[in-house]
Amino acid sequence: MRIVLKTEVDKLGKTGDIVTVKDGYARNYLIPAGLALLADERNLKALEAQRRQAETRALREMKTHQAVAQRMAKIELTATVQVGEEDRMFGAVTATDIAELLAAQGIEIDRRIIALEEPIKALGVYTVPIKLHAGVEAHIKIRVEKAEAV
Length: 150
Prior knowledge:
Elements: E1 2-5, E2 18-20, H1 23-30, E3 36-38, H2 41-73, E4 76-81, H3 95-104, E5 124-133, E6 136-146
Parallel strand pairs: 4-6
Antiparallel strand pairs: 1-2, 1-3, 5-6
């Protein structure tokens, strides 16, 4: 029996794949569990329409993320930190700190998409990658400076 998978099934296929399975497996498990549909003309047309909608949505999201990446490339953030002797930092600049600095600039992002390998623990200028979407990565410059002594 030919079926169209609605979700990924281990050792069988991915979402949208048309596979041939034994009749009993399809009638007794896959179709009642909502994992597959019978591969008839109506279901194939509906699947194709859903696939086109998903592609359109993905393209629109990609363009939005690319616009945000271009906007982020122009931003240079400045983090002021407390330092001790020999300009050694107290603490570090983390992904959470960078997300807060970006929020102050009007760009709200989740701290988990900031691809900071390890927290910044020294003064200087750093380029930090931010993974906005699959295939879209922005790079922002962050300047770590010492705070003025009071």
